[in-house]
Amino acid sequence: MDALTDGMPHDATLLSTVLRDAPLPLWVIDEHGRVELANDAAVRFLGHRPGTDLRGGGSHDLLHRHRPDGTPYPKHECPIIHAKQPLAASEWFVTRAGDVRPVRWSTRPLAGTDSVLLSFAALGGSASRAHRAAPATRETRTETRARLLSEMQHAIASRMCDPMFSPATLATDNHLSVRSVQAIFAEAGTSPAAEIRRHRLEHARVLLARGESVQWACHASGYQDADSFARAYRQHFGYAPSRTRQP
To answer: Which NCBIfam families does the record match to this protein (predicted)?
Structure first.
């Protein structure tokens, strides 16, 4: 590609033809993050009909508008869109149909311009094999969300006694946004805040049933304020925490 961009006259028609017909998916991103050129190999890789003109579209959304588990992938977190020097990494792209395809990509700034050349290829075999495996990938995304939910539930059970533990902490630890974490829990009919509260209150009830004081159960369950603890306990169980201590 250096020979095309640096070592020969920049005949726009010739360059456009070479890029269009190259077997390797090639993608040019302008300084605003829009697609400046996408060759047919790239268009087909992403599940569009050959000849589809993607110029002017948002590169990030066309390549990977969400993560493999279906949660949003913010544009500002994308290394490709902000590439100012040669980069290479393994990641995933999302086809027009929403199938996740693992890829190996590399970027190279185009000399004399503010544009970036992106090339990519499927990981683990040819693009055709990856395309045929797409239906299984859909199920994998569901399994991934179920796994994340299970892992976060385990984290809640392990860390509920920490008064600083919160849905934001849970999101940060799992490299997700709070909204993404809330969406995963919502699919199970709950929320991260509700699960943290439930675990804390059930732990407090066990302590109270053992004869521990209300004050001790409050602080040992991650609550810092006795009044807040008492209100939450009453709302959850229907009676005051002191009643649990009664024989």
So the answer is: sensory_box
